[in-house]
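pipeline/complex-builder :: batch 7 item 3
reading input block
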Amino acid sequence: MNELVEKDVILEVNNLRTSFYTDEGEVKAVNGISFSIKEGSTLGIVGESGSGKSITSLSILQLFAGTTGKIIDGEILFKGENLLEKTHKEMMKLRGNSISMIFQEPMTSLNPTMTCGEQIAETIRTHQKLSKTETKLKAIEMLRLVGIPEPEKRIKLFPYQLSGGMRQRVMIAIALSCNPDLLIADEPTTALDVTIQAQILELIKNLQKELGTSLIMITHDLGVIAEMCDFVAVMYCGKIIEYTDIRTLFNSPKHPYTVGLLNSVPSHEMDSDEDLKIISGTVPSPYDLPTGCLFSPRCPHAKAVCHESMPELRVHEDGGLVSCFIYEHDKWQEER
Amino acid sequence: MLVFIIRRILQTIPVLIGVTFVVFIMLHLMPGDPAVVIGGEAASPETLAQIREDLGLNDSVPVQYFRFLSGALRGDLGMSMRNRDRAVVDEIFDARFAITVQLAVVSTAFSVLLGLVIGIVSATRKYSIADTGLMLFALLGLSMPNFWLGILMMNFFAVTLRILPTSGWGTWQQMIMPVVMLGVTGTAVIARMTRASLLDVLNQDYIRTAYSKGLAERKVIFKHALRNALIPVITVVGLQFGGLLAGAILTETVFAINGLGRLIVQSIANRDFPMAQGAILVVATLFVLVNMIVDITYKIVNRRIDLN
């Protein structure tokens, strides 16, 4: 575990709580999570839709304009400074400059009425004092960096004239144009074809190495996690239920939910007529969360204690963190 | 694109022919004998017969229609019946046309400016007191009959306060009330449209992207959101402008402005058939042409953002 909190930590999130307010009441989208990222490393956040992983990423940049989302507790320490205490202006200086973000939908994440070049140049102009020509050259340079052929011509194109993969490359160019210290990629490949997915992941990986950027990779795809990450946080209903390094996660997953997720991935050894293993039940409604462990209604091992109280995230003997009573031997044995 | 423009222009031809037909039939179904209008109540049957013969009223209806149509194509809409030395075309284009177009243009500018401001303020302060107040105001503007608004304004500003002239057209003081009366509906429509469209755009992914780049809210709204939100508004503005030309009838009547609208009303009241026919035809043609221009503009603007 010491590995996770060593120095050179670029981002540290402590007990973050983010809620949305709807007509039906408060939705605790992120419910007290903590994690940290070392400089240059990659943290994966994995979970089903609605687990709060995207909201976690939006919380870091406080991108809640036009929504009812609000961070109600916790701290987000970026290079030791709490982002939640920053003013609007200070946050604006950080966004796209020190911390930037790539979104899930390349089809809709670019402004349809602006050329790609202008959308890249805009970020450069906002954060750096460059002349017009320098800005343009930098935009072209960024397009070249993300592997777009003939960037001098492509900067004049509108998003609708580019394919999904190309648009995602433009998004990456925008995000990296000011050499951010931290890049947050929110399901960057989910909307793309499988072959393009591999290319984009490869691109992000290479650029990360080249520029020394730290990366948060948000995904529901364990394949992406295996490919990209050093550490993984598994989220369920707004909480982190397992947090460990990549090897431990795949070699010996601890939490029954993580085990279920890994089992539900189809493998080559399976017979074609064999059913995929699924996790029974569905993600509970955010308005009606179960008491006790949030996973208890779907957990094959659940005992009475699981329905009564919430297990804490504890250090496991192999160094990872897990929140499950199975690993709290005293409570688990008592039950029997 | 060129094909679209050509096809759109060609499409207006049958519409315009249809317009001439409807205008012609409408005037023919109107009660009243043009011969009596010209000759007067006391004219003898022989005189009336002579006048009918002169005007070609004894010809069959199709013959009369084609005479009207071919005249219209040559830019000849006949002579006024009230003032038989005055050509309809001269009366319309020398005296009336410019006033109505001015009124419509100024009213549209007023609607667009005020409508956009209200829409943007409302959308960016969704559900605030300002938003609720402005939308209530827009609803009022939309539901209030505008001739009544015109009369109320006239009573207040011209009669009670005596700060604006009651009628006429020319000075800027004379323009204020007619422009407000004619523009208020458009203002309300544009305000509501801008608000809805902007709220929709503000929820789009690319707005979040814009914020994630570190742009200030002002820049996100004016540079990223508004540009996209205005596309549906353009259509509304175009339709409003076309509608204003027709709406000018009421405004011109209330404020005694000698434009095309008032000409239509006066010539119908006077049973001046060629004049009414000509004026209606010009207004209808303008409406068709404005719509055509709006369609083409929209297509050109929209082409760039077509997502598929």
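note: The radius of gyration of chain B is 24 Å.
queue -> next item
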